[in-house]
Amino acid sequence: MSVNPDTVRRIALLARIAVADEEIEPLQAKLNAILAFVEQLSTVNVEDVEPMTSVIPMQMKQREDKVTDGDITEDIVKNAPAKDDDFFVVPKVVE
Amino acid sequence: MNELTALTLAQARDGLRRKEFSATELAEAHLTAIERARVLNAYVLETPDQARAMAKVADARLASGDARPLEGLALGIKDMFATRGVRTTACSRILHDFVPTYESGVTANLWRDGAVLLGKLNNDEFAMGSSSESSCFEPVISPWRRVGSNKPLVPGGSSGGSSAAVAARLCLGAAGTDTGGSIRQPAALTATVGIKPTYGRCSRWGIIAYASSLDQAGPLARTVRDAAILLQSMAGHDPRDATSVDRLVPRYEAAVGKSVNGMKIGIPSEYRVEGMAPEIERLWEQGGKWLGAAGARMVEVSLPHTHYALPAYYIVAPAEASSNLARYDGVRYGLREPGDDLVDMYQRTRAQGFGGEVRRRIMIGTYVLSAGYYEAYYLRAQKVRTLIRRDFERLFEAGIDAILTPTTPSAAFGVGEKSSGDPVEMYLNDVFTVTVNLAGLPGISVPGGLSGDGLPLGLQLIGRPFDEETLFSLAEVIEQAAGSFSPERWW
Questions:
Q1: Are strands B116-121 and B173-178 parallel, antiparallel or unpaired?
Q2: Is B182 a catalytic residue?
Q3: Domains (range + CATH), chain B
Q4: Residue among B239, B243, B314 whose CB faces A34 most closely
């Protein structure tokens, strides 16, 4: 499997990473090098094999449905590049 | 002052209790050493004020006979752990000014036990790398050099700042993280000890996430005993991490020096890779002989799916990374690049904030998870993981106690040497270590010897889930037989 320039642009959009026109070709080459490497997996017989969903078999712990945290608004906005009171400020969302 | 930094963590612990020196003296000795070693670029943030304040508290407790397990012991912390009030960046521009308002589970344990923070240690950006060259703070330079050469070498990665600092005696020990070998490989390249415990042994809460099903925290130190002491404090259940196991933490230090007589050690034939340097093979054999002399029995075994581990890792890890790194969007923290609208802001922020390797891995991950490719790639890789784990389970069921392999396919390489054009060239450094993360098992690297050029080579032991004790016992046997190695100070 390999990617063409249009696919590289599509992936960049999905990943929300800007890629300049002159960067497309070198990026395409590097991505294809990696994809060529992982292609080996297609030769493994995985019939009737379950995908690993839990690394170490364990029962997920549950807790009582009670509020035990919160009221830390100041902490939450502390590192914000732009804020207004308790709000994160962002550029206008355009339809 | 010099003598204090030459102590092992265990010796420093005992010396403090015997009042041979104070925690303040210990901290000062390290702060001085750190100042003199800035050329190594191991620390990305020094915290002298905090170190002194913590050492003062430690001295009070030592005086009143109220010492905690790590009281006064000066440590460095990889910049992947959130440290409250202390800048934490993952060595990425996108978090260049992030100051956490919370403490990670693992570092909270270290401070709970009285350890002292010297500073934050350099690493590959977002822990993605095997050389610590991709850090936004510039590469780490290894304290090790080839005999007769002053060419700068890498200390390994991604925990290269940690391995360099431990080897150069800029801390008594360090906390690192390991997703595909990032504790063990740097340990091997610097003649230090590094252990990645079983998945779930340490809390991942407050560790900047790279690949959530592979990440684990662990110690780097100069001796097996030191690593055991540190893991004792680092490990333990954390209710905030759903993958953290609620299991008693054994007395790891007690396992150091325990007999390994009668243990069965697997030697996997598939790890004998093509083009393997003869000196690595010789060291591997030597490791087997050392364990044999201590009463263990070597058994040739097979891990048939070994060859597929690296490609599986380079699907799973980037996939999970693409999800974990989606949060870096310039809205709530970190770098923000102005944009015409929200999406433009996201795209510019992430393009400017992430380095090349991180951008590549996010894009590979995005691709393999996208519609039409999920089954062919991610799902398939997760099935291969099951096969890889089964390979190990079969051996453990047959009575194998641990598996012995080299840690890396070669000794340390030069800074800039593997930045050709082929990203895969760097990935091959992880060939012996990634299987362990994929299977969730514990793995330790212990110094085994030096290469022809005088550079460290490590041996790896892989154990049963939650049997870190066996690894410490076996590693100590190798340590006794191989001896210790320190870099000659050129800085």
A1: unpaired
A2: yes
A3: 1-491 (3.90.1300.10)
A4: B314
**Any domain includes A15:** yes
- Give the confidence band of A59 by pLDDT, cuts at 50, 70, 90: confident
Catalytically annotated residue among B135, B162, B163, B182: B182
Is B364–A3 a contact, with Cβ atoms under 8 angstroms apart? Answer: no
Residue A10 covered by a domain: yes
Q: What is the ipTM of this complex?
A: 0.95
State the pLDDT confidence band at A95, using cuts at 50, 70 and 90. Answer: low
Asked if residue B321 lies in contact with residue B400, where contact means CB atoms within 8 angstroms, the answer is no
Q: What is the mean pLDDT of chain B?
A: 96
At B277, list the tokens. Answer: 């340097």
* B78 belongs to the catalytic site: yes
DSSP B83: B
**How near does any CA of chain B get to the CA of A39, in Å?**
8
| Residue A37, domain extent | 5-42
A81 lies in some domain: no
Number of helical H runs and strand E runs in chain B:
17, 11
Please name the residues in contact with B78: beta carbons below 8 A apart, sequence gap of 6 or more.
Answer: B120, B121, B123, B159, B161, B162, B174, B175, B176, B177
In a domain, A24, yes or no: yes
Q: Please report the pLDDT score of residue B424 as a whole number.
A: 80
Q: Is the pLDDT of residue B422 over 90?
A: no
Q: Cβ contacts (< 8 Å) between A94 and chain B: which residues?
A: 341-342
Query: What is the number of other CB atoms lying within 10 angstroms of the CB of residue B336?
Result: 23
Q: What is the pLDDT of residues B229-249, one digit of tens each?
A: 999 999 999 999 999 999 999
pTM: predicted TM-score of the whole model, two decimal places: 0.97
A23: CATH = 1.10.20
Domains held by chain A: number? 1
Question: Which residue out of B132, B134, B135, B158 is catalytically annotated?
Answer: B158
